[in-house]
Amino acid sequence: MKIEIRNGKAHISGYVNAVGRDSKTICSPSGDFVEMIEPGAFAEALSRAKNVDMLLNHDENRRLASTSGGNLTLKEDNIGLHADCEVSDPEVVEKAKRNELQGWSFGFYVGDSSFEPRINDIPRRHVKSLDIFEVSILDNRMSPAYAGTSVECRADKSVLAETRANEDPAEVTEIKEIKQDAKQEEWQKRINELNIKSMQDKVDALKKGAIA
């Protein structure tokens, strides 16, 4: 996770989740497994999504950015799901300065998936399609290596909403604006005036030469 702080805002970018790679072991009521998001699953999901919110710690009351708002960009490349956002929330900016942001997570509904039995190892779930509804920035109050599930009622049926987290230590750069003091501003103003006068003198001289 790369963070650049400038003018009271934090520009945050990083990989939310990888594709084509095994996750850490995920514990579920039906048994443990590892998970692999198949390449193209995120790209397809993003093409269908009308909007994806960015939250703090999956808190719907802490919306930091959104794709529809223009301050969040999500795309899938050969590594995985990449996020790029600009956050102006004062608390999150301060957390960034104190190096308290530590990872990513995302919420999704699984579409097409299958389990691959493996000899002498836990099964692997291949997620071939999904619907993504939010991504989250995690601070130091949440574990950056968890997986969660919850049952939600949507369209008169129960669906399983899942979350996956990814640890991504922050690299923070703070760019401080240098403000000119009153004396510097006065000198700059005087220089600008002299430059304008010099240009005007040249124009006047050319006009006189043309008349002569």
What can you see in these coordinates?
With 212 residues, the chain is α+β, with helices and mostly antiparallel strands. The chain folds into two domains: 2-175, no CATH class; 179-212. 22% of the residues lie in helices and 45% in strands. The chain has a six-stranded mixed β-sheet. Strands 6-7-2-1-14 form a five-stranded mixed β-sheet. A hairpin with a 2-residue loop joins strand 4 and strand 5 (59-66). The model has no long low-confidence stretch (mean pLDDT 84).
Number of domains: 2
Shape: elongated
* Mean pLDDT across every amino acid position: 84
Strand content: over 45%
Please write the string of helix (H) and strand (E) elements.
Answer: EEEHEEEEHEEEEEEEH
Structural class determined from secondary elements = alpha+beta
Query: Rounded to an integer, what's the Rg over CA atoms?
Result: 26 Å
In the predicted model, the low-confidence regions spanning at least 5 consecutive residues are: none
Q: Name the helicity range.
A: 10-25%
Question: What does the main sheet amount to?
Answer: 6 strands, mixed
Number of helices: 3
**How are the strands of the biggest sheet laid out side by side?**
5-4-11-8-13-12
- Number of β-strand runs: 14
Distance between the termini: 69 Å
Give me some keywords for this one.
212 residues; alpha+beta; six-stranded mixed beta sheet; five-stranded mixed beta sheet; elongated
Task: Give me the secondary-structure topology.
Blueprint: E1 2-6, E2 9-18, E3 34-37, H1 41-48, E4 53-56, E5 59-66, E6 72-76, E7 80-87, H2 90-97, E8 101-110, E9 113-116, E10 124-127, E11 130-139, E12 147-154, E13 157-167, E14 171-175, H3 182-211
Parallel strand pairs: 1-14, 3-10, 4-11
Antiparallel strand pairs: 1-2, 2-7, 4-5, 6-7, 8-11, 8-13, 9-10, 12-13
